[in-house]
Structures are given as C-alpha cells and as structure tokens.
Amino acid sequence: MEQELRDLYQELILDHKRHPRNFHEMADATRTVEGHNPLCGDHLRLFVKLEAGRIADVSFVGEGCAISTASASLLTEALKGKTVEEAETLLSKMVELLTASEAPTDPMALGKLGVLAGVRDYPSRVKCAMLPWRTLQAALSDDAPAAISTE
Amino acid sequence: MNAPQRVTTWDVEAVRADFPILAQTVHGKPLAYLDNAATTQKPNAVIDAIAHFYRHDNANIHRGVHALAERATIAYEAAREAARRFLNARSANEIVFVRGTTEAINLVAASFGARFQPGDEVIVTAMEHHANIVPWQLVQARTGIVLKVIPMDESGALQTEQLAALITPRTRLVAVTHVSNALGTINPVAELIAIAHQHGVPVLVDGAQAVPHMPVDVQALDADFYCFSGHKLFGPTGIGVLYGKAELLESMPPYQGGGDMIRTVSFEKSTFAPPPQRFEAGTPHIAGAIGLKAAIEYLERLDRLAALRYEQELLAYATERLQTVPGLKIVGTAPEKAAVVSFTIDGIHPHDLGTIVDRYGVAIRVGHHCAMPVMTFFGVPATARASFAFYNTFAEIDQLTDALHRARDLLV
C-alpha cells in the first residue's frame, strides 16, 4: 500500500508540488484562461504568450492538490518553446494517457509527463491531473474563453 | 498508540455487529468508516426490511384491492406513523415523504414560496449547505425576494442575537440548519424559532445532520417545517421526510402534479387531496419508506442518550488526537458541536489527504462539502472531514491519526 501511494506520489510529482515551476502571473500574456473544478474547488490561471505560432512563455498560478499542481507545473516546462501544433499533439497524448480505457504502452515516451500515468489507478483523481490540460486546451482554441470548468 | 481507558456504558461492539458493511478490509486494512455526515451505514434490520418487502409484499399503494396492495399500503402508512413518532409530530398527516432533505426544502421553496412577493425576505444562516441556499435563490430569480444571512463568528458559532435585527415586516421565512455538515456546529434552533415567532415569522429547520445524533421533538421546538434524509439516519437513500404544521401544509398549493395527489380530475379542473397526499404525486419510494421505518425502530431500540454521550466522547478524543498532527487546524470550534471534525493540514491539499488515508483503510470526506460559502468564510478551498456515528471506535480515530501522520511523512 505504501508502494502504491509512492507510484502515485512519485518524487518528481512531489518536487513539482513543493516547488512548482513557472508559478507566477504574466503581465504580457496573450491568452489567460481560468480553470476551475467545481467538485473540489481547485482553480488555476494559465498564462500563455503566443508569438508567431509558438508558445514563447507559459506560466500559472492557483490553488490545488499535489496532483493538479504538479500536472500544471510539468505542463509549463513541457510547452515552453513548442509550436501550437506541437502543443496540441502533446495535449491529445496527455488526454489519452490520463483517460483512455487502454493503458499506454510506453508512458515514458512522454518524458517527465509520464509520471502522471499512475493517476490512472485513482479514478477520482484523474480530473485533478486533467484540469491544467483542459485549461490549456481552452487557451489554445481560437476563441479562447476566459474560464473553463471541469468535473 | 492505544486509546486510553474510556468510561462508557455504550457497547460499541454489539452495535457494530448490526452493521455488516463495517466488518471488511479496504486496501488490506480494517475499514474505518468516518464519512457518516455524507451517508450512514445500514443495520441488518433495514436491509432485511427492504428485502422482505420486495420478496413478499411488493405492490403499488393506495389503489389496489388485492392482498399485496393492502399489505404494501399498510406498511407505507405505518412508516409515516413511525416518522411521526420519531419527530413527535401531532399527526401523521404532517409527515410528507420526499426523496430527501434537498427535495423537502425545494418543496417548501416552490409551494410555500409560491406566495412570496418581490421584496419579501427569507433569512438563512452563514453555515448553510447548498441545499438551503440554492432553492431560495431559485425563488429569488422567480419572484425577486431578498435573501438575508445570519452571520457566524470565527469559531463557526451562529450569532443568534443578530436574528432579531434582520427580521422586518417583509420577512416570510427563516430557514436554518440544525447542525452544520461542514463544521459540526449545533445551532440553538429552539431559541431561533422563539425569536422568529415573536415576530410572527415561521421557521424551517434542516435537520439532516441533527437527527442521526440527537432526539428531536418538533412540538417542543415549535418548528414550522423540519426535514431530514433517510440515508443519513441509517436508512435507505431516496427517502426523506418533510414535517410541516398541519395548518401550513393545508394552506400550501401542490408541488408536483400527478397520480395520488388529487381528489378529482376532469379536463376542466382538478381538486387536490389534503396533505400529505397532496405533496406525494406519483408512486412513492415505498420500499424506502419501509426501510426508513426499520431504521427508526432500530434507533428506538437503542439508548439514544447513551449513543449521544458516546459520540461526544469520540468527538473529544478525535479533537485531542488530531491536534497531535503537526500543521493540523480544526475548522469549526463552536462550543456546541455534533461529532464532526473538519480540518486542514498545512502543505497538504485535502484531496491528497483523502487519497492517502483511504490507502490506510480510512474513509473521510474531502472537498467543500457542498457548503462553499462556509469555505469562503474560513478562507480555505476545501477541508478534510471526519464525521462519526455511534458505531465508530476510538481505535478508528487512532487509525485516522496514524494515517494523517503518514500523509505528512509522504507529502510535506
């Protein structure tokens, strides 16, 4: 049971929970979207600076559990410098990693983001890991809404 | 860490034997079910009564002339009488079966609230859960009433003395929770009702979190409406009770239309049955009512004052033991509390706590407890909540405390 919890709360997740990366507001963001999970009260604001079809910078602030904070922090690290197309590909892979009925054959193909694969064994926690990614999805859409809500 | 010797006359092991679900392991650990404010477990008496109904007596009620229909009708109406006795209502006609507390409040909002005018006022408390806020906001959207709030202090105790100042000639109802689900605070409802009645204002009491813990006498309280859910009272889900004073119920229009709530129907006009049938359109949850009766009879066989004393010992013990966890803060420290402990731990989100203690066999609730204004008041997004019933043990509180220490080891 200790090991199962360690699979969920891996060191990398705990490190990002304790020291979230890119955790600040961004004054010159081109897109700012609020993500909110009404079931648990978690919320984050994701800031994206798009320049010539590329994510020049990305940051977040908010309040959430270890899983959602680490997921958001890892997201910002993974996206910086990516084109919008690359970000969308990564987004769909993450959605698949977290929600597809079949477990991914090689989660580590996603690099560090693969540590979130353990969340699949905790169905009630999948939405925590998903929140930053759903928020990103909204931020990347052409008619980016100001706020999204997940359950 | 063993529980110190406790002086209690309560035979908890005998009671636990009545609840088969408690004797299981979860993730290889004995189950410590500490989520009783969300729903309670069911004794064999309730499970058996429901099974017996479906095996032997199942039929629709109030319309059949065959043997099963008569048995089902008698059993359903006997459940109403049990609920009357349980609340000490004057008449079984003052007992309306509903799906639960939420539906009871919606019924009062829709029916009693049908006569509200723009500018009329409904007063609630700062510690209501959403079920006693949102129905009034729906009335507000429809008719333009004003919603007023009795404040609470930093401990989560209601500022009862503020009520009189909030009441005006436009106040039509005071709607208060008896016990807060998120904080455990026991409100002085008798006092609140007396104040409201001095101004001629009726009072609805949400008793969902009160009836599992303490005997309630609606006549002694002089409550105008009192409601509770069966599933928080060791009975089935999907059944609950709205008590209303006969003269109030008789003055109220139907809530939903359909079968069994009418006297006559023609295509020109229908006339409605008297309460409680007026408010029970369609086939009700017959088995649920029968299960609720079994739950009430189970409670009547217990020494409820001894159960209450025992729960207060659990509360005191949990309050003391949980505070050994570094960074733990109890949210809601009113002097009068039911056996509910809401808390936060610095550096750990309640959802992570919930997941981790579950792996140690401990079931607690985490989140905003459908009481977002309470969370806002205390400046927290969510809390973890351990809520106790008379079948919980001191050892389960130790199990929770140990699991919280392990959560800190893992996450902080």
How do the strands and helices of this protein lay out in sequence?
The complex is a heterodimer of chains A (about 150) and B (about 400).
Chain A: H1 2-8, H2 11-18, E1 31-37, E2 42-51, E3 54-63, H3 66-79, H4 84-99, H5 126-140, E4 147-149
Parallel strand pairs in A: 1-4
Antiparallel strand pairs in A: 1-2, 2-3
Helix pairs in contact in A: 2-3, 3-5, 4-5
Chain B: H1 12-16, E1 25-26, E2 29-30, E3 32-33, H2 44-57, H3 67-87, E4 95-98, H4 101-111, E5 121-125, H5 134-143, E6 146-150, H6 163-166, E7 171-177, H7 189-198, E8 203-206, H8 218-221, E9 225-229, E10 240-244, H9 246-251, E11 262-265, E12 270-272, H10 286-301, H11 304-322, E13 328-331, E14 340-345, H12 350-359, E15 362-363, E16 365-367, H13 372-378, E17 383-387, H14 394-411
Parallel strand pairs in B: 3-15, 5-6, 5-7, 7-8, 8-9
Antiparallel strand pairs in B: 1-2, 4-10, 9-10, 11-12, 13-14, 14-17, 16-17
Number of strands of chain B: 17
What CATH architecture of chain A do you see? Alpha-Beta Complex
Mean pLDDT of chain B: 95
Briefly note the structural class of the backbone of chain B. alpha/beta
- The total beta strand count of chain A reads 4
Low-confidence stretches of chain B: none
The number of distinct helices of chain A, counting runs of at least 4 residues, comes to 5
- Please, how many domains of chain B? 2
Which class of the largest domain in chain B in CATH terms?
Alpha Beta
Span of the ends, CA to CA of chain A: 27 Å
**Tally of domains of chain A:** 1
Fraction in beta strands of chain B: 15-25%
β-strand amount of chain A:
15-25%
CATH level 4 superfamily of the largest domain in chain B: Type I PLP-dependent aspartate aminotransferase-like (Major domain)
Mean pLDDT of chain A: 90
Q: What is the overall silhouette of chain B?
A: globular
SSE-based structural type of chain A: alpha+beta
**CATH fold naming of chain A:** Sufe protein. Chain: A
Task: Output the radius of gyration of chain B.
Answer: 22 Å
Order of helices and strands of chain A: HHEEEHHHE
Family (chain A): Belongs to the NifU family.
Pfam families (chain A): NifU_N
Domain NIF system FeS cluster assembly NifU N-terminal (chain A): 9-128
Protein name (chain A): Iron-sulfur cluster assembly scaffold protein
